[in-house]
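$ fold --in a.seq
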Amino acid sequence: MNSITLEEKVEQWFVERNLHEANPVKQFEKLMEEAGELFEGIAKGKNELIKDALGDMQVVLTGLELQLKNDADIQATPEEMELLLMVTSLGTLANKLHKHIFYSETKTPLIKPDLIMLHSNIHSIAIHNCTTADTCLQIAYDEIKDRKGKMIDGVFVKEEDLT
């Protein structure tokens, strides 16, 4: 009996929906969305969200690999180019923090250029969305200024998430 693997079922799902030749940049955006859910699940200790995000990330990665294998047309808007640059900067920052911890290279990780680049990305993406970084920062501050909660394992947990 010829049984189909779970990965083959996922690939078939992409083909049936004509997503196997779609733009990999859009699939990458979906991957970042799922990664955000994973980090949220870890930060909030929500095991079901972690499992869901890990599974979704595997589905998205399977689709991305399929799209690249099928020579899908890779295109990006100026905003998407800025997002790709931002993710590159985040990766560089993560790599430097990892090296700092793993190798104890310096007393303070040398990340200032990476932080400057990320702030630049934020300003550009805000402009693409007809706003400013300062407006967005004000909105975020207004949302958190009266927030109460407590630190748990080095993460600030909002009061409403403590229950």
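$ fold --in b.seq
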Amino acid sequence: MHLETDRLLIRPWTHDDADRVLDIQSRIEVVKWLGDGEPVLMKDLDEAHQRVDRYAERSAHPPLGFWAVEVRATGIVAGSVLLVTLPNAEAGEVEIGWHLHPDSWGHGYASEAARAVLAHGFDAGLPEILAVSHTDNYPSQGVMQRIGMSDRGVVERWYDGPSALFGITAEEWRAAQG
């Protein structure tokens, strides 16, 4: 999948990106927000190459996937945006998510990439897209609100412990697009 926005190219991760994957995934300020349990920092390029392969596997069933977010003006990969089935999903619930390198925070890249991926998912027929975060990940929750998702409270469903849940239906998305 390739999507373009005004400033971004959303594309598959490649092995040429392994250095950047390592740089992102070896930072506690990024990894502490991913998944549940204790954060696990990436240690070396071998792990980065394995992760690129895993991203490709997770992108094998469109419209789902795990993609690089490249800044078109510089060619630098800001981070990832994803559309995947939630862990332990009983009804195939789909989650959108993002994680960016700290040097790419505060530029609106997460919101811009997420809007493009929401459109991609809804254009492919998904009826609803959810987002979950740690309850104290306020920057990510801010992105969720900026892209039109509604706060649905705190749940203990897909991950160990409580998560903030946001969501948007295809109808809500289309209505907001005018």
